[in-house]
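Chapter review: from sequence to fold.
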Amino acid sequence: MALAEIKKEIIKESNYQQSINLQRFFKTGKGEYGEGDIFLGIKVPIQRRIAKTFSDLSLKEVEELLISKIHEERLISLFILIHQFERGNEIQRETIYNFYLKNLKHVNNWDLVDSSAHKIVGAFLFFRDRKVLYNLAKSKNLWEKRVSIISTAFFIARNDFADTLKISKILLHDEHDLIQKAVGWMLREVGKRDLETEEEFLKIHYKEMPRTMLRYAIEKFPEKKRKDYLHGKI
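The token string follows.
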């Protein structure tokens, strides 16, 4: 059975010391955003290799990995979904997109979102109605909000910035640093392709932005301009 084989491979690649480091890095302590997440200590390149080897798993088997309490099993399942989505036909891509949304509660850490949202949700919605992103942006769930903005990375890469800016505005006053960082990051990505568009947005909103969001958004600016933004002199 392929599922048993992949689980055996995952266990074989586990590293105890690395798992301890990851538990700390991903804030798995009580009351932290990753509370209760379990790590086996497998590096991402190894996880990608495992996912490629088992990329033909059925959706039922992928789901068994995605609902796992083990972080690496969830990330590997997402890498498999991406493989299947990218080589699938339109019907298969829609099935994977719907499966992803149905199981969003298991895409519950920042690396899981950042590795998959744009490659599945963003890619599927590029030529479709994007209302679902606005629903996610208004969610009370941290990870659904992060999916909403990170999904737009697919649009940004194709010089389509409107939804990034609109969703950034919805999330502008979010109190969680993982949302502030994600919004700032996406605004910075807009600026890499169209600095004027990013600055038009910033000049309107930068004084009300959380500092973390602003710092991420202006990270690549020349030092003087960065200081001017931080000191409210624009």
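Two observations follow directly from the output. The mean pLDDT is 97. The two ends are 61 Å apart (CA to CA).
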